[in-house]
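hey so i finally got around to running the thing on that chain from the lab meeting. sorry it took forever, my laptop kept dying and i had to restart like 3 times. anyway pasting the input first so we r on the same page abt which one it is
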Amino acid sequence: MVLGIDAAWTVHGPSGVALVKRNAEGWSCVALAPSYASFLALANGTALDWSTRAHADRPDMAALLEAAERLAGRPVDLLAFDMPLSTEPVRSRRAADRQVSQQFGNRGCSVHSPVPQRPGAIADHTRESLEQRGYALRTAMDQPGSGGVIEVYPHVALLALLNRHYRLPYKVSRSQQYWKTEGLSIQQRIERLLEQFQLIHAALAQKISSIDLPLPHPGQIQSLAALKPLEDCLDALICAWVGMENLQGRTRPLGDVSAAIWCPEGAFLPAQELQS
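ok and heres what got predicted. didnt touch it at all, straight out
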């Protein structure tokens, strides 16, 4: 079982959470939520209301693990985070960040640099809390295929999931930059983003069944902000998918003894393709 978390780097943003479980028929989505609070509410029997805004909240790893076990009937094997994590305090650019940017930067997938304030104490507390509960951070010294905690990067994961050569333009906060030369209206950017969301959703549905994520018609969305919970949930599902690939030995770590970003094998193009 994998818990994918698109973790906010500050306490001011919500974090998407996806729980997936493997059975005889393959992998299925047990629960999906746009925030920690709504994930905990699902475990307590409260249905998710997509019309309400996802609220920011602090991560409580003990509560999340307990909720996941209640929802799926067994403990989590692996947690996959989209957030800088390290066995040392995360204060600046790490070897993992440099290596991913070197490997995938020419495909639009350089990583953001962590700073003392972002994610800072949140990342340190998360890693320490999970380690206390038997979930150790997997670094570049480890092999794929076992449990614990891994860090992933959705932009790189999507290169493999969608068989793309270049980054997918699906981030709400960057929609103006993606199509700057076209001068799109907000409604047109909403339409473009939802098209990208549909691509991601369709690809994930080939890997994970029972994904309960209602993607709206563009006419139902009045603001870009309304798309952010959907983006966070898709990122959480992407994290979970990389976790699935990791458990099956199909990921590669980039980093060092203190931290690693785990990338699907399918993201690494042969040298001749990178040169073309």
